[in-house]
Write a structure and sequence with these properties.
This protein is mostly helical. Helices cover 77% and strands 0% of the residues. It contains six helices and no strands. Helix 2 packs parallel to helix 5 and helix 4 runs antiparallel to helix 5. The longest helix is centred in the C-terminal third of the chain and has 28 residues. It is globular, with a radius of gyration of 16 Å. The relative contact order is 0.16.
């Protein structure tokens, strides 16, 4: 492996981003995969990737994002508050989009559409 990548560093990173992996990577991807049967992808970048290459290439994008997140971890881990904010924000966004996709599956429409619709 790379000289700059130590096993302890990678293990620590993977432990720190376990909720990012659960919600942003797996949760969003699996619910998107299932929700596509009920609608379309609302986010422009994944929509383009899905249309041109297929849903599995979205996993490649998520992997590339995780590589960037790892690089961010290497740079900002000495600032615990900044690293906590970053990983919790990404995990929270993953949870939100996973719930949004789940609402498409259950209700056939987007949750935030119902939340912000003015009668």
């Amino acid at each position: 492996m790379l000289d700059c990548l130590r096993k302890e560093e990678l293990t620590s990173f993977l432990y720190d981003v376990r909720y990012v992996i659960l919600f942003y990577v797996l949760g969003d991807w699996m619910t998107t995969l299932y929700a596509l049967e009920y609608g379309f992808e609302g986010n422009i970048l994944p929509a383009i990737v899905i249309a041109k290459y297929g849903i599995f290439y979205v996993l490649l994008l998520k992997f590339l994002f995780m590589v960037l997140l790892f690089r961010s971890y290497q740079v900002i881990r000495n600032f615990p508050w900044l690293w906590d904010f970053t990983r919790k924000t990404v995990a929270g966004m993953g949870l939100i989009v996973s719930l949004e996709n789940f609402m498409v599956i259950l209700l056939g429409s987007r949750f935030f559409h119902h939340l912000f619709v003015i009668s």
